[in-house]
C-alpha cells in the first residue's frame, strides 16, 4: 500500500513525539529504535523510511523536545507582560511538577550530562535548542544593557537547571520541595520580581 506524503509526515511527527519523551525520561542510550517504533505501532524496518540512523533520530528528538517546550512557553506566557512572563517561567521551571515530569520537562536539565558523549549531530541540535531557550529568557530579563541581559539570563538558566537536577536527585521529598521553593524565591529576587509564594 502506498501512503501519501502527509501520512509519512504525520508518522514522522508521531515517532518524534514518542522519541522526545523517551529521550528526556531515559537518555539517548536508554531506549532502542525498536521500542520507539513499536510504541508508534510500526515495525523496526519502517524506521529507515524516516531516519538514516539512531543518531539522526536522537538529534531530531532533541529538536522536538525543545520545540515542545517552546510551544508550552508560548501558551503559558501569552498575553502577559514581560515581568509576568518571566515570573510564570520561573515558577513553572522550579516547580515539583517540572521536577517530577522528566519525560516532558526541559531538555537542558534532562540531557545535560549525556551531551558530552554524543556525536556532533546530536550536540548541534542540543546547542541550537539551548540557545533558543536562552534567547527567550534573555528577552524577559530586566537589565537594559544587552551584554548584562545575556549574562543575567545565562546565569539564571544555569542556576535553575542545576536546581532542578539536584531536586530530582534528592531522595527526601520535603528537602527537594524546599530546594525548589528557595530557588524560586531567589530567582524572583535576582530578576527583580516579587518573592514567590512558597
Task: List descriptors.
single chain, 198 residues, mainly alpha, 9 helices
The sequence of SSEs as H and E is: HHHHHHHHH
DSSP summary: helix tally: 9
Helix content: 55-70%
Strand residue percentage = under 5%
- Please tell me the overall pLDDT: 91
Give the strand tally.
0
- Rg from alpha-carbon coordinates: 18 Å
Structural class: mainly alpha
Descriptive overview:
The chain is 70% helix and 0% strand. By secondary structure, it is mainly alpha-helical. The longest helix is centred in the N-terminal third of the chain and has 24 residues, at 54-77. The model has no long low-confidence stretch (mean pLDDT 91).
SSE topology:
Blueprint: H1 5-26, H2 33-40, H3 54-77, H4 82-93, H5 96-100, H6 107-111, H7 120-139, H8 146-169, H9 173-190
Helix pairs in contact: 1-2, 1-3, 3-7, 7-8, 8-9
Report a brief summary of the structure:
Helix content is 70%, strand content 0%. The chain has 9 helices and no strands. Helix 8 runs antiparallel to helix 9.
Amino acid at each position: 500500500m502506498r501512503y501519501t506524503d502527509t501520512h509519512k509526515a504525520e508518522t514522522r511527527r508521531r515517532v518524534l513525539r514518542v522519541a522526545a519523551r523517551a529521550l528526556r525520561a531515559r537518555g539517548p542510550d536508554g531506549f532502542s529504535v525498536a521500542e520507539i517504533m513499536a510504541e508508534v505501532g510500526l515495525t523496526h524496518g519502517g524506521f529507515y523510511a524516516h531516519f538514516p540512523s539512531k543518531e539522526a533520530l536522537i538529534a531530531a528528538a532533541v529538536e522536538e523536545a525543545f520545540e515542545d517546550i517552546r510551544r508550552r512557553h508560548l501558551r503559558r506566557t501569552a498575553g502577559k507582560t514581560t515581568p509576568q512572563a518571566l515570573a510564570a517561567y520561573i515558577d513553572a521551571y522550579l516547580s515539583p511538577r517540572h521536577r517530577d515530569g522528566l519525560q516532558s520537562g526541559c531538555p537542558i536539565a534532562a540531557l545535560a550530562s549525556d551531551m558530552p558523549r554524543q556525536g556532533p549531530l546530536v550536540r548541534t541540535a542540543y546547542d541550537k535548542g539551548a540557545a533558543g531557550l536562552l534567547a527567550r529568557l534573555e528577552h524577559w530579563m530586566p537589565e537594559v544593557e544587552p551584554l548584562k541581559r545575556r549574562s543575567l539570563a545565562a546565569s539564571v538558566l544555569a542556576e535553575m537547571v542545576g536546581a532542578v537536577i539536584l531536586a530530582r536527585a534528592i531522595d527526601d521529598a520535603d528537602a527537594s520541595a524546599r530546594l525548589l521553593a528557595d530557588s524560586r524565591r531567589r530567582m524572583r529576587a535576582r530578576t527583580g520580581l516579587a518573592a514567590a509564594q512558597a
